[in-house]
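REQUEST FORM: STRUCTURE PREDICTION
Request ID: SP-0412
Submitted by: Lab K.M.
Chain count: 1
Length (residues): 184
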Amino acid sequence: MKNKCDDELMRLVKKKHRPALEELYDRYIKLVYSFGFKFTNGNEDKTKEIVQLVFLKLWTTKSSYDPLKGSFTNWLLTVTRNVCVDYIRKDSIHAQNNRQMDPSWSIEIADPNNEIEKRLSFSEVAKAKSKLNMSQKRLIDLLYWKGYSLTEIAKIENEPVGTVKSRLHQSLKQLKKHLEVGEL
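STATUS: Completed
RESULT:
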């Protein structure tokens, strides 16, 4: 299995070939774990559940990776992000059912230079993100790490949704540019 590319392994996974999934797990466990760890603000138990959900999704999902649409790593990170957002939303729904929201509650955005990000400093995404300005980092943190919707971000930032979408587009364009340039 070690000599097969990611695309071949995913085709085998679709045919329920367990060693192919095990190889993908071995290759990408650190990446998925790091992403989940950052997303859950360092909660190891939640991170482990997210890792299980990601690889379970690879095993059970009917959608598949298409190499013509991009790299496997980017696809896997998108799957991981979606699993994280779903997990955090379900978790917050349970928390809301157990307590009333305090109207004076304020949103805390983690410092982009916090300890978790330092641990991920070897990640290309973290390096590219560090080249963005503070408002771009904040927007990406709110959307991808905190799981807020564009509408929620517009309320937080007190801006129209269209403005937030435009800022997001420009931020992602800059992030992509930094990832592609290879100046990291």
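NOTES: Residues 72-98 form the longest helix (27 residues).
Reviewed by: T.R.
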